[in-house]
Predict the 3D structure of the following.
Amino acid sequence: MVNETPDTPRRRKLRPTRRGRLVLLIAAVLVLGVAAAVLVPLLTREPERTRSLVVPEGWRASQVYAAVDKVLGESSGTTEKALATADLPLPAEAKGNPEGYLFPATYPVTDDSTPQSLLRYMVDTAVERFGAEHITAGAQRNNVTVYQTVTIASVVQAEADTAADMGKVARVVHNRLARDMPLQMDSTLNYALNRSTLDTTAGDTKIDSPYNSYARKGLPPTPIGNPGEQAMAAAISPTAGRWLYFVTVAPGDTRFTDDYAEQQRNVAEFNRNRHGAGNG
């Protein structure tokens, strides 16, 4: 303990003067004003808009490009042109064409989204899904590449009338490839002609196109659409069977056979049904 002596000066308490109190008050007001100026824009700023881009199973790349243009409010053709700068992680076999790798799903779209960022999102998703071990193993088991498996799946997606038929359609594709038979799939002609129809003419089967699977053997050079997971599953694990032909004679009624004469009878029934529907 320290005792004070008469010579020890007393400590004086500091109190602000009237001018000092005024200065402190002004400073406090200024600080509050700055804080308010920062806070008000934060409170009044509109929340970022979040929309969705829905890519259905089986859509072609051209349909996806149009949907991206629409959801972003871009002029037609913008997304397709953006391919040049999108830096997509596609397999070498694709040669820069993302057909088959614009994975069907629902994607979030924000104010920061661009055609390039959405395309990368889709392709990244496809590369991740298609790179799964069971898909690579299935491709090796079928003696095809993963890219060729995606191509087969795209044909299955376009041809199968129902999900239950996908495995059988995939088997027809594999059986025809194994026998060195042309696939003779109308879906590949439709892709070449940029259309979707059930009616194929003799003239259609003679068009000069690498996608004409009536005139050319083997798989088309690229996928003909963007397949979903069910079609991919069918492509790697097709249903066991000897089928070489199929035709959907009526909705929900697809006939599979390995007998050409039976196929001809089924096709005749399909034509009668189409003719009857046209007259109705």
The two ends are 114 Å apart (CA to CA). DSSP finds ten helices and four strands in the chain. Residues 18-44 form the longest helix (27 residues). Residues 51-130 form one domain.
